[in-house]
Structure formats: C-alpha cells, structure tokens
What we know:
This protein is mostly helical. It contains ten helices and two strands, in the order ααββαααααααα.
Amino acid sequence: xxxxxxxxxxxxxxxxxxxxxxxxxxxxxxxxxxxxxxxxxxxxxxxxxxxxxxxxxxxxxxxxxxxxxxxxxxxxxxxxxxxxxxxxxxxxxxxxxxxxxxxxxxxxxxxxxxxxxxxxxxxxxxxxxxxxxxxxxxxxxxxxxxxxxxxxxxxxxxxxxxxxxxxxxxxxxxxxxxxxxxxxxxxxxxxxxxxxxxxxxxxxxxxxxx
Length: 210
C-alpha cells in the first residue's frame, strides 16, 4: 500500500528519545547485528548502520553561543546531557562540538572543497583499506587493529597521555586508533603518525562536565 511521503517531518534531537530506546542501539553499534529473543525462539538480524545524531549543549540550546545567554542551571545541563549514557557515548566514534556562526560569517559566500572532490578522496581511501585488509577500518576486530593501526612512537605516546588524562576505556582507545588510521589513509600516509592521532583525539570531544 502506497503512503504519502511527508516532507515536513520533524527530526528529534537524540536526548529527546527515551533512554531505553537509545540503549538498545548499543548492541548493533558494537557488533553490527542484533538478537531478538521471544519465548523459546531467538533470531539474529544484520544491523550495520551509520549513526548520525545531534543534540543541543543544554535544554535552551544557548550554552556557549556567541549571541544570547544560557538560562539553564548547572543541574539542568547535567540532567540534559546525562540522558546520553556513558556506554552509548563510548560507542560514538566522532563527537564534535559545532559552535554558532557569527552573522557576518553566515552572509559570506562559502569557500570549501567540492563534494565531488571529497567523494573521490573517500573512495581512494576506501580502496586503500580494501587492498590492505580486505575490509573497511570500521570493521576491523581488535587483533587487526593491533596489526594495521599501530601508531609510531610519537603517536603512541600522545595517545597514552590522552587515555590517562581523559580516562578512556579500551573501547575508546581502539576506536580512536581506527579513526586515526582512516585519517592517515585519506592523507595517503602508510604509517599512523602523531598528527593523525592528535586529529582523531580532537574528534572525540566528550560532553562538558558540570
């Protein structure tokens, strides 16, 4: 039966979903499949996907904005950000804070790399990964991460310092290595260096603590 496509659909920010619903994402994000159990039956289904989510820094959305003043109390901010559990946040490879733009910036013409150029670089990096390990970096198991994503001495020292300072889990450590390997592939670098590790660390910026 055909259904009318609605173009005015509202997209919710991730903290607006029920926490129980969000926690269900943890298994497929980790393994790429999901297990459904009902009575005496159990079935596994493929569930590999790319999660892209957005949220405001606080309930009013003005925390850290260049123009405007946040009206939220520290307790309100903690409760809002706390809707995203630590284990779920740990499984999100890239966490980037996007600040508000100044009015002058919004009025200026955008100067940047074309979509076609970016797509070509991504395809080239993907081909490098397939030739090296027969799969994408995101699909590497732990033993292959140690084989293909090991950084040089300077990169390893930086990553160790970040782990101690930010109190990362083993999962976060391995995910940062895979992101760094991908950054190196995009730059046509055969070795994961300090600059690749540094960039990957910057892409994993946790929520603010209050």
